[in-house]
Design a protein that fits this description.
Blueprint: H1 4-21, H2 25-31, E1 37-42, H3 49-52, E2 60-65, H4 75-87, E3 92-98, H5 102-109, H6 116-129, H7 131-135, H8 140-160, H9 163-170, E4 176-183, E5 188-191, H10 202-211
Parallel strand pairs: 1-2, 1-3, 3-4
Antiparallel strand pairs: 4-5
Bound molecules: cobalt (II) ion.
Length: 213
């Protein structure tokens, strides 16, 4: 394990390397940020947004929480969303889950971990909604992976239903929402084919994506 002191040393090396590559990079980044993307992903340390899509500082606005949930009463997530859409005017919002998500598995198992159980209750509600489909699967790993996919689609819908997106679309702002899922085993992202760019197609797109899972 690296010590905090080593992390600071690595930071200095990284900053030197960045500046050697582009002497103006930090000046440009300090002046403004204009990312085209908002990423809503899991807090899991193995799913770092910038790295897995090859984006540099300044190119993606990031919100992460346990199991990439978008809850209508979560002021933190809603504030990120509102700022990204209204102020930064991002063009794309990516909800990216990942297979083998610990939060999803804990929800599936009904584990008692503490305060977080209340947060994960949202996923248990999704599991209840799709219980028949989940019960038909062979084992816990398959059920967990399916629930990870279902969770992404439900969170895409939640983004669509926020006042932030409804207002943006009402004023004809071009912003699309996408649902992706990352596989820890090979580092690859799968597009769940649930891309929504207007309110009229949200439910239909999600139904289509659910059928193709
Ligand atoms: Co996770």
């Amino acid at each position: 394990m690296s010590s905090p002191k080593q992390l600071l040393e690595r930071n200095r090396a990284w900053a030197r390397e960045m500046a050697a590559h582009d002497p103006e990079c930090f000046h440009k980044l300090a002046a403004q940020q204009a990312p085209d993307y908002l990423w809503i992903g899991c807090s899991d340390s193995r799913v770092p947004a910038n790295q897995i899509v090859g984006l540099q500082p300044g190119e993606i606005f990031v919100h992460r929480n346990v199991s990439n949930l978008v809850i209508q009463t979560d002021l933190n997530c809603l504030s990120v969303l509102q700022y990204a859409v209204d102020v930064l005017q991002v063009k794309h919002i990516i909800v990216c889950g990942h297979y083998g998500c610990g939060g999803v598995l804990a929800a599936l198992r009904n584990d008692r971990l503490g305060l977080i159980d209340n947060w994960l209750r949202q996923i248990q509600n999704i599991a209840a909604k799709y219980q028949t489909a989940l019960d038909g699967l062979f084992d816990e790993e398959q059920r967990c992976d399916k629930l990870c996919e279902l969770n992404v689609i439900e969170q895409v819908l939640n983004v669509c239903h926020t006042t932030v997106l409804r207002d943006a679309w009402a004023r004809h702002q071009a912003v699309a929402i996408h649902g992706w899922i990352y596989r820890l085993q090979d580092g690859l992202i799968r597009d769940l084919n649930v891309s929504i760019s207007n309110p009229g197609t949200a439910d239909l797109a999600c139904r289509g994506a659910l059928l193709s899972l």
